[in-house]
Amino acid sequence: MNTKILAGAALSALIAGQAMAADMTLRFGHVGNPGSLFEATANHFAECANAELGDAAEVQAFGSSQLGKDQELLQKLKLGQVHFALPSSVMSSVDDRFGVFEMPYIIQDRDHMRRVQGEMMDVFEGAANENGYTIVGLAENGFRHITNNVRPVNVPADLDGVKLRTPNGAWRVKMFQHYGANPTPMSFSDVFTALQTGVIDGQENPYAQIASAKFQEVQDYLSITGHVYTPAYILASKKHFDDLPEEVRAVLSDCAAQTQDFTYETAAQMEVDLLEEIKAAGVEVNEADKAAFIEASRPIYDAFAAEVEGGGDLIDKVLALGGGSS
């Protein structure tokens, strides 16, 4: 009788375990609006994963800060309330080493970023691990440009006194302070209203974020600066990701790699299409003097090298992989 009871209990446990696996919902939160590169990235990752996972688990994507703003999502990852997030600039607030990507003009193009990924990813994965996270894969937030309602920006001096929203990353703030702007860190979801009401004069983002957030409706000028290329990270809690079944982790990692290819191709096409969309909305567009911005950026590099342990070495390695210098 005891044997039957034990066998019955084991079977019940197995059935319960299978039911739990079938009901495993993995929530992916991000701040991107409909039409954004973030939305396309998260949706592609979810579709890929769900096609491969079958009944083992389901990835559900939630955009527009529905599950929280960037800092909240980082916290919710650790609490297990969210399973994936898509942070970009905010990672420099997690660990100083991510700040190397905040150095203006340090990443030349996506091929350069792939080389950095191939040669240096252990540095950034180590930084993530030390802070309780794991990088499941890379995506991007693209090359950033400046919009504002004061004047066209051709050289750094044109930013003098401009109230410019930045993400919550210390190095972006320092960079724009050095250029002469008045940088104001603010959550992305608050930016449209702040621009509309004149709380801030401008902001800086890739075209995909500018267009999907409809900033062209409340901005007069777009200056093509390309001052920062921002990687984005398909990020998970190390503890919670490691607790997933091995076969689930394998599928998620593979889908993250596939999503990077998709994101890079989509981003490159968006750079063409969305610039035309922004122009069509009546925004005045100008090509900034990048050489002037690069020259004005040297003190930011010096500060990073001085203030971040190993910062100078990080800069040198990233630049060397680009085949040039900034």
Automatic annotation (TrEMBL):
One biological process term from GO is: transmembrane transport
Keywords (alphabetical) are: Periplasm, Receptor, Signal, Transport
Question: Main localisation, per the record?
Answer: periplasm
Task: List where the protein spans the membrane.
Answer: none
Q: Does the keyword Magnesium apply?
A: no
Q: Where in the cell does this protein reside?
A: Periplasm
One protein family per Pfam: DctP
Any single GO CC term annotated in Swiss-Prot or TrEMBL for this entry: outer membrane-bounded periplasmic space
Query: Entry's Gene3D superfamilies?
Result: Bacterial extracellular solute-binding protein, family 7 (3.40.190.170)
Keyword Signal found? yes
What family does this chain come from, according to its entry?
Belongs to the bacterial solute-binding protein 7 family.
> Which PANTHER family does UniProt cross-reference here?
PTHR33376, SIALIC ACID-BINDING PERIPLASMIC PROTEIN SIAP
What is this protein called in UniProt? Tripartite ATP-independent transporter solute receptor, DctP family
Organism of origin: Limimaricola pyoseonensis
